[in-house]
Design a protein that fits this description.
Length: 326
Amino acid sequence: MDGQRPRDGQRSVVLLWNDEPGPYLAAAQAEGLERDFEFVTAPFPGEPEEAALAQADVLLAWRPPKAMATRARRLAWVQSLTGGMDQWLASPDVPPTVTLTCARGTHRLQMPEHIVGALFLIAKQFVPIVMDQRDRRWTRRVNPTLAGMTLGILGLGAIGAEVARKAAAFDMRVIGTKRDSAKVPHVARVLGPDGTDEVLRESDFVLLLLPATSDTRDLMNRARLARMKPSAWLLNFGRGDLIVDDDLVAAVKAKTIAGAVLDVFRKEPLPPEHPFWTTDGIVVLPHVGGLHPTRDRFVAELFVDNLKRFAAGQPLREVVDRARGY
C-alpha cells in the first residue's frame, strides 16, 4: 500500500488522534489538502470513537488504538508521531497490510542539543556545583575539556550525524557504528555493527542512538559495559531496552564505568522504586530529548508531505521496514 490511495474519486478520511491537532490541520489547510482529504479529530489519550476509526483511511497517532485491526478495517496508512516504532511493530492490532511511516528526522535539532547538554553536565560537574550552592559551599572544581576526548556513537543516523557535527566544533574526536558503515561527515571512523566493541574500548563517552531490534535489545550488558573505559560515561537517548538495567547499576556501583545519563527507559514513567533513581553516578532525564515547543510543526511538515504523496499515489517518506524493526 506504499503511497496508494484506497478509494479513487473520493476524499480519503484522515483521523488525527492526538492532543494537539491544530498544527497538523493548519499545515494541511495551508497546502489545500482539504480538496483530497476529510479531517477528523479525536482527543488523546482517550480512545477514538468507533465511527471515526471505521471510516479512517489514514491515521496520525502516538500509538495503536485498541483492536485497531477490527475497528479500522479501511485503514491503509499510519503516520506515527514518534521516531521509534516499537509499540506499533509489537502490536498484534497492526495488520501487515497497513503502511507504517515514522517521524524519523524530526528530532534532528532538539535531541542533539540535549545530548550536548549531557556532555557538559558530565564534564563540567554542573550538578555538584549546584549542590554546592544549595549548601553555601565554595568548592573550586578543576574540570577536563571536551576537546581531545572521544565520543563513540552507536547508531550514526540523522541525529548521530548532527551530534558529530556539533561535537567537532568542540574539537572532540568522533567514532561510531552504522549499519552500512558509509562515511559520515565529522566522524573520524565509521564501523559496521561488528565494530561495536572497538568503539566501546576507545570512547570517553558512549552514546546510544540505536533502534530497538532483536539485534540491539540488551546490547549493553555486563560483558559490554566491562569493555568500556573505567572513566567512560554511557549516554542513552535511543531506546530503554538497549541496556540491561541491573548490569548498568552494578557497573556504576563497582566503578566499572564512571556513570550514565539516561533519557529513555524500559518502563516509563520510571517507577519510583527503580535503582536508577538512587544510584550515584546515574542521571535520570524524564524522556525529554525529543521535546521541543514547536516539535509538532516539524512532524506536521513531514505528515503533509506524505499526505500529498499519498493523494498522488507516490512512495511515502520514512516508511518503516518491518523486517529491520525501524
